[in-house]
Amino acid sequence: MSGQLRCDYLIIGAGIIGLALARELKARFPAAAILVIEKEADVAYHGSGRNSGVLHAGFYYTADSLKARFTRDGNRMLKEYVKQRGLAINECHKVVVASDESEIEGVRELQRRGERNGVEVRIIDEQELAEIDPNARTTGIALYSPSTATVDPAQVCHALRADLEKAGVRFLFGQGYVGRQGQSAVVTAAGVTIESGLIINAAGLYADRIARDFGFSRNYTIIPFKGIYLKYTGPDKPVCTNIYPVPNLKNPFLGVHYTVTVDGAIKIGPTAIPAFWRRNYAGLEHFSMGELMEIIGWEARLFLGDNFGFRSLALSELKKYDRSYFTGLATKMVKQIDTSGFNQWSKPGIRAQLLNTTTKELVQDFVVEGDGRSVHVLNAVSPAFTCSFPFAAWVVDTYVLKQ
In which domain, by residue range, is 170 found? Predict the structure, then answer.
């Protein structure tokens, strides 16, 4: 396939962010010609289809962050969409527990953040925690989030694709971005040249590289982290709600926790293991020597400089390949658990985490750069799935309507 196409809006990437952007643009501009290109054979092949499916509430983030607002609103908006479309949802709620007295202040800080962000959270004692989940264990108090739920992320993305196609949005699969042509066109892997009024880059793991072709992402690069869960296969159901530890708020990872999936399965995780190339899922799959050298170089610098505690983070994450160590982290949050029941590894996912190459810090909030010709979603990290609908509206307000 080759040739030339023309559209009003071209979106690169058919993950949840690309789909949400197409949905928002079609709602605002019903007559617009919208085209989505995707290198894979369908939507949600990568992070959007491999995440936990948790609809987060929004109490982890500082009130001045985009994440705080988008998570709170996205939780509500995605629930409404899922229920309207008759998709699966498990309103299993969530608790954050303290492993010892030193973490009690962390629980209270999450409560303060939640209240500032307009999120429904409350402190509960050990007795009320036992009523919510008899097996959950805490020290003194815990934080209860009744609005947290889980969905099937791939199912949501496929429903969005169906809605968009019905509305007239066109998809080209197996048509990855190859390069820029002139001021307002791109070339795909199949040799198709696409001229567009506005190009929107929502390419996830490769968003920074595409952005550089347009003069953006000068101070950023993607550092990939591999996330894997362990599924519980025993005959019993040891927990009935999502159970999380108090996180280290200085980094963007929430620590090993229990997730109750949309179908009631129980898993622990995820890991946040530094990956060595961008699609480093298993073995040498999608191996790239160029990516290996670039990423190893950055990881070596971060390790030697111990920027944002990267050295201890990397060493502790690598230990999670040891199943006994991994499951041991989860035992602290419950009264009893048969760790041998956690014996099935999930399909790995890769987190596209943005690094500020000037400050050598992991960027914890959304980052978007652009102008009147192109817009680039550089950092759409967790909980981007939850945030996707209000985030897309903000991108359109900020980078489409104001240009």
Answer: 1-53+152-219+365-403
